[in-house]
Amino acid sequence: QASISGEKSSLLAMETSYDFGAISMAAGEVKHIFKIKNTSNEAVTISKIYTSCMCTTAALTIGGRQFGPYGMPGHGIIPKINQAVGENEDAAVEVVFDPAAHGPAGVGQIQRTITIENNAGQPVELLFSALVTP
After folding, report:
1. DSSP per-residue string spanning 63-78
2. Torsion of CA 81, 122, 58, 66, to 10 degrees
């Protein structure tokens, strides 16, 4: 059951943003793993994960089981995950960014968001940035 008391989500990201730095479009996809933890004393259910752009996918791993990868709403159905993260359990979100997805116009500074909807309050947002070079 979701808390409506205005408390912070009990799903905590160990880091909320990551900078890939300068990456070459020609070098292909880059990946980063964000660690998240359920800091409460009850299970938190992750209902959906989605990304802000078609160039990015995110896969969830809980207890050695992987779900996804998931992409951007509007570019395919974003299925419900409905997977519980147990009390004090860690999970991981592997983010894959394809710098070539936007073609030659995709060079320059970018920022993307991964949203994790859950039943513990506000969605958790993970951000990454990069400077895409040809």
Report:
1. TTEEEEEE--TTSS--
2. -40
